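User: My collaborator sent over this chain with a note saying "see what the structure looks like." That's all I know about it. Can you take a look?
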Amino acid sequence: MPFNPVSLGALIQGSSFTLWHYRTTDSRAVVAAPGYFDAVAASLKPGDLMVVQTSDALALLPIRLGATLGTGVTLDGAIGPFNTVRSVTQGFSFTQAAAAVVRTIVLAPIAGAIIAGSSIPVSASVTGPITEVVFTLRDANDAILPPARIVAVVNGGASTSFSAPPVGTGYRIRVEDSTDPSIGVTSPSFSVGMDLELVLQESDARLLIEGGGALRR
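Assistant: Without extra context I'll predict from the sequence alone. Here is the result:
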């Protein structure tokens, strides 16, 4: 049903704040829809609070700009009769407890130059409730070079290794929480160079070039 102004009343009023009460047979989703309170938009101010008793919930909702309701808090999802006593001296307060959980990942330093065909060992130290991390090797365009390594965190650490990619620059290693990729860290860029042992060989005290001929002055 549409908004009924008779069912809206002020429980507490001050110079810049009003606690409203609204009772309806509509559902909470209908009441929270944009435009529902347009008929009284001039009276509802941003920062006011509204106790809303709907057919499916009792909720405390903040009023935002344009007489729209914020997400708020559901006080009861299976409500019964609700009575209030209106008084200009009535007090109202609520508290919310929260605790911070620290989760960090620190990537160990990686050599600035890697030899093609070698192995790149990587490791990270982990703090907080992270049980699994994902290591990835990325090129200069931040594209992932498969495969990604999914590693369990053991005693606050995780480690794995990658085969060195083709000769090039701008490679990076990234490690992140497998359940929350926003928690992660990326290494500085490094280069992959040629293995000089494949270019110069020694035979009878002479250096040979890659084709097998002797290196001459």
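A starting point for your reply to your collaborator: The chain has a mean pLDDT of 82.
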